[in-house]
Design goal:
This protein has 644 residues and is of the alpha+beta class. Helix content is 69%, strand content 8%.
Length: 644
């Protein structure tokens, strides 16, 4: 309950009991001339916890100046260290390093102090995260802990303990690391540290448990952290707790609540810590991608990237879901080339397995699975692999065996994956394993068993709102509702044209192309779903209307004085409405149409043979040819329409 604070003594008392909103309001009512350097320090802390980071930074800079002017080097160094952390969180690394150097200079000739233990702690954190030097980080954490013990700074003791635990885990010393993290977190949660240190300890522990696949322990500490956060009438830092809560909720299948938590976290943190804010936007992207909201996922991944977070593997999986296999391969390959940390690679390798299978590259998929197993084996807990990691490996193995047509082997692996994810309490991952298990059963001749598993998967996807997966399950069960003809257009060699024509001429040519293509689609009764780079994605009620549109587009472009060559692909299939406003389409029929379009040549209209079955047309068709489309096991027969 907030109190009316109208005196300097009351403001100081509120700060002493960490009632930060009351302290902030109280100091705001005091004549600034009455504030001592210590008052400025407390006022800054109150502003920080009230979500006023700019004001907090200004107050800390003032406090630093006054401490320095009065000869209080410890106070000046304390403010310099706080400012180094503030600016580091904002991504202003040069400014952060400048304040860190200032603190180091102030403390180098002084005796042991809490401030120097905090300097050692900061150096240790930088060694672990920025430099990746775990041996040096461990040594610095030990020095910081020992010094904090001697000078009586419990916050640094707890943070050094948890930091050392995190370094141990990164180095593969799992049991020792978890023991230190549990000790530090228990101490912090029992009131052994101030708010900022407590929050950091929770974050280190939860992220470590998540990285190790120990979702049970991560969930337990997340619940404890959120109880602590909910007790604080503050802004800013609790956003980190909300992100952890969002991760747990997403894993448990409560996607709407997870997205609300992640969005709230981003709002609270956007001024405080760019990297954690970026994690929040990435989490939103994951939720939307799994729900089938591609546009929303793309926006969230883009924002995460703008805040400095690699949007992989989510973005690569999004590209795969959109049917852009080459882009998915490029994205996941690049991020794995850039990342060496085993715990980070661990989160990306399952995506590489899935994408490599879609690209028909089983050698790469096998290599990714082998590396995944090696990493997991090096991060065992009590000589056992985490259940979630075992389920991840079994799922990836089952996917590869399906691609290799080892139906019985795939069924065995996917049954283990299903059981593992069920024990973890992850309904989406369970449903995905069940759907693949159903396919394996069917391919091995067990039609009834396969149908049971796919129906179970469908029920799970429907409860979750996983539209794409729901559509795939319905398709396997013969329950897909809508059937339309989809058409994709794309300019051939657009990059070369841009280089040849220059920006202005290219813009005029592209504008005319867009106008003509859009008009021909609408004139033939089609619906422009959306632009796709240099082309269009359109939907039609029937195949004849789509072919008429394709012919009209090619003829219209041919009649222009200057026009680009355009490839066009069409296919009829099942789909469903998707996107936040239900204006997009998703489903296998869309993916096939997109892949056929990509397989067409310059100025060609390429259509799946089945789409033209029973469709009367006066135009000549080529002899059917088989095309192996990326992401599909069986080749598809296509024909070329002679529109000339």
């Amino acid at each position: 309950m907030s109190q009316v604070i109208d005196s300097l003594d009351d403001a100081r008392a509120a700060g002493a009991r960490q009632a930060w909103r009351d302290a902030y309001a109280g100091y705001g009512n005091v004549d600034p001339k009455e504030l001592t350097p210590s008052d400025l320090e407390t006022y800054a802390e109150a502003a920080w916890w009230s979500g006023k980071l700019d004001e907090a930074i200004g107050l800390r800079e003032r406090a630093h100046t006054v401490f320095n002017a009065t000869g209080d080097k410890h106070g000046a160094a304390r403010m310099a260290l706080a400012l180094a952390w503030d600016y580091e969180g904002r991504g202003a690394f040069a400014v952060s390093y400048g304040w860190l150097a200032t603190a180091r200079r102030l403390l180098e000739t002084l005796p042991e102090s809490p401030e120097y233990s905090r300097l050692l702690l900061t150096d240790a954190m930088m060694a672990m995260y920025a430099e990746g030097d775990l041996e040096r980080a461990e040594s610095l954490f030990e020095s910081a802990f020992a010094l904090a013990q001697r000078v009586g700074d419990p916050d640094v003791q707890i943070l050094a303990l948890s930091g050392k635990g995190r370094a141990y885990i990164k180095a593969g010393r799992i049991e020792e690391g978890l023991a230190l993290l549990d000790e530090a977190t228990a101490s912090a949660s029992s009131g052994g540290a101030k708010s900022h240190a407590t929050g950091l300890v929770y974050c280190l522990t939860i992220s470590s448990c998540r990285d190790l696949g120990d979702f049970r322990r991560a969930a337990e500490w997340t619940e404890a952290a959120n109880r602590w956060c909910d007790q604080l009438d503050v802004a800013g830092f609790p956003g980190a707790c909300r992100i952890h809560r969002a991760e747990v909720l997403r894993l448990r299948g409560d996607w709407p609540a997870a997205e609300v938590q992640a969005q709230a976290a981003c709002e609270e943190l956007h001024d405080f810590d760019r990297s954690i804010t970026a994690d929040g936007h990435y989490e939103i992207g994951e939720i939307r991608r799994q729900r089938g909201d591609f546009e929303g996922a793309e926006a969230a991944y883009r924002t995460a990237n703008e805040h400095g977070r690699d949007p992989q593997p989510g973005l690569a999986l999004l590209r795969l879901a959109e049917g852009k296999v080459d882009a998915a391969v490029a994205g996941i390959s690049r991020t794995l080339e850039d990342v060496q940390d085993p715990l980070i690679r661990l989160r990306r390798l399952p995506a590489q397995v899935e994408i490599a299978i879609a690209a028909g590259d089983l050698r790469t998929a096998r290599g990714a699975l082998d590396e995944l197993e090696r990493i997991v084996d090096s991060y065992k807990i009590a000589e056992r692999r985490a259940v979630a990691f075992d389920a991840t490996i079994d799922h990836a193995s089952g996917q590869i065996k399906l691609a290799e047509k080892d139906w019985n082997g795939a069924a065995a692996s996917l049954q283990h994956a299903k059981d593992g994810w069920q024990s973890v309490g992850a309904p989406y991952e369970t449903a995905r394993a069940r759907m693949l298990l159903g396919i394996a059963y069917r391919r091995s001749g067990d039609e009834h068993g396969g149908t049971v598993e796919i129906e179970g998967a469908l029920a799970g996807f429907e409860r979750l709102g996983a539209r794409l997966d729901e559509e795939r399950a319905k398709e396997l069960l013969g329950k897909l509702e809508a059937r339309r003809t989809f058409l994709f257009t794309d300019i051939v060699d657009s990059t070369k044209l841009l280089d040849t024509l220059g920006d202005e001429k290219w813009k005029r040519l592209l504008a005319r192309h867009d106008e003509l293509v859009r008009e021909r689609i609408v004139e033939t009764g089609g619906e422009v779903v959306k632009k796709t780079g240099d082309g269009f994605f359109a939907s039609f009620d029937n195949p004849k209307a789509a072919i008429d549109a394709a012919i009209a587009i090619q003829r219209g472009l041919a009649a222009e004085i200057v026009a680009p060559d355009v490839r066009i692909g069409a296919h009829s299939g099942g789909a469903f409405r998707s996107g936040t406003d239900a204006t997009d389409y998703g489903g296998q029929g869309v993916h096939v149409a997109a892949r056929i379009g990509a397989a067409a040549g310059a100025a060609e209209i390429l259509v799946s043979r089945e789409t033209l079955d029973g469709v009367a047309t006066s135009f000549r068709l080529s002899e059917p040819r088989s095309e192996v489309l990326k992401g599909f096991e069986e080749p598809i027969e296509v024909v070329s329409v002679d529109w000339r």
